[in-house]
Amino acid sequence: MPETSERVAVIGAGLAGCEAARILAACGIGVDLYEMKPGRRSPAHRSDDFAELVCSNSLRADSVTNAVGLLKEELRRLGSLVMESADLAKVPAGGALAVDREEFSGYITGRIKNDPLINVISEEVTSIPSDRITVIATGPLTDGALYDDIMRLTGNADLHFFDAAAPIVAADSIDMSKAFRQSRYGKGGDDYINCPMNEEEYKAFYNALITAQTAEFHGVDKINVFEGCMPIEVMAQRGEDTMRFGPLKPVGLTDPATGKEPYACLQLRQDDRASTMYNLVGFQTRLKFGEQKRVFGMIPGLENAEFLRYGVMHRNTYIDSPRLLNSDYSMRDHPDIFFAGQITGVEGYIESAASGFLAGLNIALRIKGESEAAGMLDSKTVIGSMAHYVSDPAITRFVPMNANFGIVEPMPGRFKGKRAKQEKYAAVAERSLSRVDEFSAIMRSVIKN
Fold this sequence. Notes:
This protein is of the alpha/beta class and 449 residues long.
């Protein structure tokens, strides 16, 4: 792996920044990775490790017939550090991939710090470097002087939405005489703890929730809340039964105490490998801490729950990428400046990591004179379709987007019958992974040279 003389600056050691730094180093390119922790943390961060998961510990579906599941497999085959760590830190979660968040971040931190081509600089960056290729992967919580410099560079295209995290409770404080272990439809074993509610209990909880006090957050009611992380109390305001078709849906579950499907049911997902912590699935919230304990304590099994972390809400900032970026994540007007991660408008852990991986890879290919090779990761793949979506100038009302098959180039032909959708997605996955495998062979050659 010959080392080049050029060094790239990567600002931010989150999922995107770590992926960018790692693939650049794998291609023999030196990296200066800037991270403001441990000197300073954002309001949402608790750990000094890199690639910290600030919200859920779930990386979502793991099947290739689901878009984010296919994206995971694409990244595995491309040599993603995030996927390497996720597979090692995996905890039971049915058909999803969830991780022990400390083990996950710790592994990535160790790999980055021990890479001889990555120089970690623990300091806060206040302005964008102008003397070399730079990846800005500072995440959606970017603030301060660097935020001001980014706004100057992008023409003050200040876009944002509000995101929230769910509470975590101690496993030994859950009343298992009322809760039960089971996965929906029996998939994945008894991976979840379920707290069932009858109709009376659900309605009492609903009424308490919609009247509970929320934490003050200036402007939150005037600004977009991301649908994928909607606070549970906001969801409840949409109607009495809305939660029963969302995070409290009982379908696929049987309460062993009654032998029937509950009226409503909260699922708790394992948050660490030791099974000492469980998070409330889908219960992102901005309720005041005391209200969280009171209202969520009305759910059977959580009456005496010990809250290890209360739910919080924070503002996420992203740039107007379709106006600013090329499909390689570089700026149209400043080609040596790349953006990666949620600040580009990709939404989700894996999507963020994928954008960082692709930004770093595109820089490596440019430096090595192999830019044309990157064209193989096009909109026939999930990783390429996300890059094309965030850089499409035809998009006039840009909003954050998770990986989905709607932005992937459609398969030709028609699929019929009851399994048409699954067969179509399986065909998309086969086409995508074939393309990724072909590109991987070329990438290995680039890394060697």
